[in-house]
Amino acid sequence: MFRITNRGALATLSALSLVALAACGSSGGSANPASSAAGDDSPTDCAAYEVYGDLSGRNINVYTSIVSPEDQPHIDSFKAFEECTGAKVNYEGSREFEAQLPVKIEAGSPPDIAYLPQPGLLKTIVDRFPGKVVEVSGQALTNIEENYTQDWKEYGSVDGKVYAVPVGANAKSFVWYSPKQFQENGYEIPTTWDDLMALTDEIVADHPDAKPWCAGIQSGGATGWPATDWLEDMMLRFASPEDYDKWVNHEIPFNDPKVVTALDKAGSILKNEAYVNGGYGNVKSIATTPSGEAGLPILDGTCFLHRQASFYQANWPEDVTVAEDGDVFAFYLPGQDAATQPLLTGGEFAAAFSDREEVKAFQAYLTSPEWSNEKAKATSAGWVSANKKLDPNNLKSPIDKLAFELLTDDKTLVRFDGSDIMPGAVGAGTFWKGMTNWITLDQSSTDVLTEIENSWPKN
């Protein structure tokens, strides 16, 4: 699963049973074969790794918020780099990542590489610790420009300078459903918002003992985050990408009329007792329903639709088949028309705190087609890269393949999760709280958004 710590993990993927990798005996940038992260005996040609040189005896420390069992695919994806270059990658995952990273930097012992789960956190670290984050340069910068869209370069930038490289990505604009339910009821996948609402009303008429939608925003200290995604998706569909950018950057007020309209659109589903909350209760039950369990009523027919990201696939029981003809699948959350394709995304970024040769080489490796493909081979489901040179055949999950298709489609209007870019006091604070109050206290869209606007830092 693609884990975003400050939002709370949904459910973790089960540990992967990967076959141990056989050493290739390489002492550096030779063309000796190395085993791949795929868990089989097929050799990896080290020729692509020659650009990094001979790094024998060098160590690279990587610090992330990704812990067991989600860490193993990352660790396995480094094997070819280690065996072909001679370097050793020391991986450390911590549930206290956000709190401990500044402590490490202040103590003068930062990691060589840190995976930052939000562009907003990257900006905070760059601003708080001037000169500590090393600008991306050389092969890593070349790889970003060749292998990613301009958006992903900008997400890793602060004040026009690139400080971090993309690591993983996920697509958030998905609606989960049961293909079997749809087939039995003659329902078709909607391609416009009006079609989606017509389908919602049809489900209401056909199934008086069920509800079209199920939702849950309870996530411990991060309660409310799934509702922020709803607003962000509505901003992309009923305002514009340009308005979205202005809103996220506070170039228009948080309570601008366009934002009010977008939240009211979300409310047309989430605050409608006829539409929610299938399997759980009324509108207010959304606030107490755990986000990781919210879509499960699809399996027993008490709910038909659940808006949640590609990483939600990790939350289905092990005996549930996720496929277009399986027990559950997902379709793209449509906009006002079928021609436009806005996509809300999330992702991780790797920042370097050292300019040593081996650190720069590893950061470049993370932007390479080799790493994205090794990582895909090592992961059973719930991870995808925005690297255009990732071979989708290496993605095992059909949802991941669909996410990759959208992420790399030139027609897709990709925008990063807004709350992950906003100042932490808002994006991971008053925004979460406000959206929760919107549900539990039935506050109006205008009142909630005005309270969040008033909380925005003055400088």
Automatic annotation (TrEMBL):
A Pfam family annotated for this UniProt entry: SBP_bac_8
InterPro entries: Bact_solute-bd_prot1, SBP
Residues annotated as signal peptide: 1-22
Keywords of this entry: Signal, Transport
Protein's UniProt keywords contain Signal: yes
Family: Belongs to the bacterial solute-binding protein 1 family.
UniProt-recorded name of the protein: Carbohydrate ABC transporter substrate-binding protein
Source organism per UniProt: Arachnia propionica
Taxonomy of the source species: Bacteria, Bacillati, Actinomycetota, Actinomycetes, Propionibacteriales
